[in-house]
Structure formats: C-alpha cells, structure tokens
Task: inverse folding
DNA sequence: CGCCATTAGCGATATATGTAGAGTTTTAGT
DNA sequence: ACTAAAACTCTACATATATCGCTAATGGCG
C-alpha cells in the first residue's frame, strides 16, 4: 500500500540543499530557486517532512511591511540522519536531473 | 505643461468606490477587484492620493501567517471633498467604462 | 505480471503588495 | 495649432506561501 517515504528525486534534492548547511534556517522561496521546484511541489513536500519530524519550521516576520511572512525550515537530528542516508550525493552536484529515465 | 492631477477615469473610479462608504477602511486588493484596476495602476494611484493628503493609509497585520500584511486606505476630509467634486456620478454606476471614446 | 490504492508531483490559481520601464494622455505655453 | 513635459496608465515581473485538481509513479498483493 504505502510507498517508502521521502525517496523521490525532489525530496532528495531538498534534503541535499538543507544538508549543505545543516544548522541554518532556510526559506521555502530560496529552496524553490535552489532546487528548481515549483511551489506546488515544494511546500507540500516541506510540510510532509515537517509532519514526519525531519524538519522544524518557524515563522519569521517580514523585514518590510507588505511582504508575506516567511516560513523558515531546518533539519532536525532525524532529518540530518535521513538526509545523510538518502542524499550522500554531493549537495551541489547534479541539482535534480530532469529525468534520468531507465531505458 | 502640467495636467490637472487626479482626473483620470481610473482615479475617479477609486474615489467613487471609497466614497461609497467614506468612513470605512478599504484594502488595495479589494479595490482592485471592485474597480477592475490592475496592481500596477492601482497602487501608484493610491500612493499618489495618499501623498497628496486625500487618503490616510495604515498597515494591518495579516490574520493568517504566510500572507502579506495589508495596507488599509480611507478618505480624509480633503479626500471626501475631492471625491464629491470629481465623482458626483453614482458610486456603483458605470464601473470604469472601457473607453468611452470621442468620435 | 498486472491491478489498483495510496502517495507524490505539478500546473494553475489565489492572496497581497509593490517596482520598472515603456508608452499614452492631457494641458500649458507659444 | 503645435509642441514639450509632466502626469498618468499598463504590461510584466518580483516577493512569498499555500491550496486545488488532475496526472503519474510506486509497490504490495493476488
């Protein structure tokens, strides 16, 4: 029934991006630009990881009024473990290959 | 050289919308839907009127996190006078006719 | 091996405000 | 009437997050 969680290329890409600086808080918008993921993919993904305890999330007030508040994310200990296990590939290397189809 | 300020159909439309409930605080987004003006027209217009003392503006914190703070606008006494003078046409009537070209 | 339920991805849309640059409109001054 | 110039409008784009609805992938089980 259930598929093994958090194994998609997209998820791995996000984990790799977060693993590059494991203690830093990152914003969804920045991650979307770094990984190339669109919001409709990224935010549900971040929320899943957060629900599963791999990320901690926190709201930050915007610096300028009129801009949206920002949601900051960071890997938890479990998240770091998962990221190391799933994304041993170097952080910056091959930022989400379009397909890598099997022939 | 200079054209008389605040006489455009668009400006009059906004003034009329505000004059419908002169004491109410209105949001830019709502006004844009009510008048059909796009943000690139509406916000500069609101800022001009505000700079000229016809509107008072105020930031409101968003109800839900993740959404932008909202800028609320209301006519000042001067603004009410200007609106009455420029927009005697009924508030709801003819909501910004597309062209009304002169033949 | 293929059925099919569950899960994930992704384009579109919504929420809100604002800026940049190009183009248009309107009137003053001659 | 013509022209110059300010005032104004409008199309894009940027900032950020999030949901909706459809499509695609996965993998357990018969």
Result:
């Amino acid at each position: 029934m259930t598929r093994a969680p958090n194994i998609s290329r997209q998820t791995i890409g996000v984990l790799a991006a977060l693993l590059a600086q494991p203690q830093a808080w990152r914003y969804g918008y920045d991650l979307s630009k770094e990984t190339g993921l669109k919001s409709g993919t990224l935010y549900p993904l971040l929320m899943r990881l957060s629900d599963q305890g791999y990320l901690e999330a926190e709201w930050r007030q915007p610096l300028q009024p009129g801009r949206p508040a920002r949601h900051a994310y960071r890997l938890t200990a479990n998240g770091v473990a998962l990221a190391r296990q799933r994304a041993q590939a170097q952080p910056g290397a091959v930022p989400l290959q379009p397909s890598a189809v099997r022939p």
